[in-house]
Design goal:
Helix content is 18%, strand content 29%. The chain has five helices and 15 strands. The longest helix is centred in the last third of the chain and has 10 residues. The relative contact order is 0.17. It has a three-stranded mixed sheet, covered by helices on one side. It has one domain: L-arginine/glycine Amidinotransferase, Chain A (5-stranded Propeller).
Length: 231
């Protein structure tokens, strides 16, 4: 059964994942990050193929992951954007999307060595901003991501920005408020039915043979930093 790295700040969501038979490893707390981002898994690790790229600051998380797979960043993160997005990149179909000027050198070198094409987008929080439905379809509210992915043959559902809770910010991102737990199921952290584009989201998922599970329906749709599958 799959294992996911998630924030420990939302017990309701992690309990629901465990109830479905999956294992959960808690992300680290990165004190240098702004408080709302400190436990976000999608800021801390990035699995690609048989490697797991990880921030140097994730000392506790690293102990819980297979050491032979780990590749630590070449530099330490900073508090301010874009020094905080060393690993906030979207890996899809052997391409890596994100703000390439901010990428960690270890990750960039791996891409060069393994013939992974890097594709620049203006949105630095590329992975947070994107829900991968499958290898050929995604959901995002970011126009720059949408245009770039469409140019690379990916079908995109562009939704309204906002309507996702992220304490300390005006709103969160769809990628951080959801995740694919198996080949035919996507979970949402909180009640996605209150999103103004829910009908579009539901129809898009159905079109691609994906079921929707809403975790903790009494909680608003919330960006928790996503769920990162490591096996």
């Amino acid at each position: 059964m799959s294992t996911f790295v998630m924030s420990d700040k939302y017990p309701c969501f992690t309990a629901e994942i465990k109830k479905r038979g999956y294992s959960v490893i808690f992300s680290d707390k990165i004190n240098i990050f702004p408080k709302p981002e400190q436990n976000h898994a999608d800021m801390q690790i990035l699995p690609i193929n048989d490697r797991i790229f990880i921030l140097n600051e994730c000392s506790q998380l690293a102990k819980k992951l297979p050491p032979e797979k780990l590749m630590f960043c070449s530099k330490r993160v900073g508090r301010e954007y874009p020094e905080n997005i060393l690993l906030n990149f979207l890996y899809l179909n052997n391409k890596l999307y994100g703000k390439i000027s901010a990428i960690d050198n270890i990750l960039l070198s791996y891409c060069d060595t393994n013939n992974i094409k890097t594709v620049n987008v203006n949105q630095g929080y590329a992975r947070c901003s994107t829900l991968v439905v499958n290898n050929n379809s995604v959901i995002t509210s970011d126009m720059s991501i949408a245009k770039t992915l469409e140019k690379n043959g990916v079908e995109v559902l562009l939704i309204s920005a906002g309507h996702i809770i992220l304490d300390g910010y005006d709103y969160g991102f769809i990628g951080g408020a959801s995740g694919r737990i198996n080949e035919n199921t996507i979970v949402f952290f909180g009640n996605v039915k209150n999103h103004p584009d829910y009908d579009k989201i539901e129809n898009f998922c159905k079109k691609h043979s994906m079921n929707i599970n809403i975790l903790c329906k009494d909680i608003p749709l919330t960006d928790i930093g996503g769920m990162v599958q490591i096996k």
